[in-house]
Amino acid sequence: MNLLIYKTEQELFGDLAAFIIATGEKAIAEKDCFNLVLTGGNSPKKLHQKLVEEYKDKFDWSKVYFFFGDERNVPPNHENYNGLMAKTSLLEPLGIPDRQIFYVNTALPPEQAAAAYDRAINEHFNGSDLAFDLVLLGMGDDAHTASLFPETPILAEQNPGVASVFVEKLDTYRISMTAPLINKAAHVVFLVFGESKATALSKVFDKEIEDTETYPAKLIRPINGSLTWYVDEAAASLLE
Ligand SMILES: O=C1O[C@H](COP(=O)(O)O)[C@@H](O)[C@H](O)[C@H]1O
């Protein structure tokens, strides 16, 4: 596990964007495509901006397939739809055609949407191991990641796939990759910044705490891949 702590957001996003591109170039050189899982929420917007500004014309985006680690159960034109945030801040500015983007179909009921997304991933991988090249994750103030929220049944899921989950405290369904699927990736990266994340981060990093029900981000432990945390000083302020 690597922990990278940055003084400024600018340095953080610059390094993370460079890591994504280097990982993509390696994957493309090895197997002619790059399977990248995007994270939702607000945190990735500046990262997307950086990728567009710095790498729009310096990287072969035609070889990248984009997936979503989780999705909110709202229509695709809703401001909370993770796919819309990525479309606006990254995919449209880069000119990525729809055939390279795997959106979650929230027109379906959540369970069916999860099953359809699971099928789409399996079809894309076409019988080979379901190992993404890179999974980007955020973390909420409550230590949830993707839509693996504290005390929800999806945390016990052993199947590497996609599931729907009712999140009581939000009174809504979410659709999320399970921890076993994320943990099959070659690289997993957390992007965490801001003071509001400091307590959760310190709990997730506390080796004495094994409680994954309360701190679901602890479930992320790639089997063979790397795990890197990109955090700023404010989020890292309570780390020992
Ligand atoms: O609801 C969600 O929240 C987490 C964290 O979001 P952030 O804006 O606080 O970084 C995010 O990782 C997840 O994809 C999203 O659906």
Automatic annotation (TrEMBL):
Highest taxon of source: Bacteria
A Pfam family the protein falls into: Glucosamine_iso
GO biological process: carbohydrate metabolic process; pentose-phosphate shunt
Segments forming domain Glucosamine/galactosamine-6-phosphate isomerase: 8-229
Pathway: Carbohydrate degradation; pentose phosphate pathway; D-ribulose 5-phosphate from D-glucose 6-phosphate (oxidative stage): step 2/3
The entry's keywords: Hydrolase
UniProt-recorded Gene Ontology molecular function terms: 6-phosphogluconolactonase activity
Enzyme Commission no: 3.1.1.31
Gene3D superfamilies: 3.40.50.1360
Reaction catalysis annotation: 6-phospho-D-glucono-1,5-lactone + H2O = 6-phospho-D-gluconate + H(+)
InterPro entries with a match to the protein in the record: 6-phosphogluconolactonase_DevB (IPR005900), 6PGL (IPR039104), Glc/Gal-6P_isomerase (IPR006148), NagB/RpiA_transferase-like (IPR037171)
Catalytic class of the enzyme: hydrolase
UniProt function note: Hydrolysis of 6-phosphogluconolactone to 6-phosphogluconate.
Protein family: Belongs to the glucosamine/galactosamine-6-phosphate isomerase family. 6-phosphogluconolactonase subfamily.
The name this protein goes by in its record: 6-phosphogluconolactonase
Species of the source: Pedobacter yulinensis
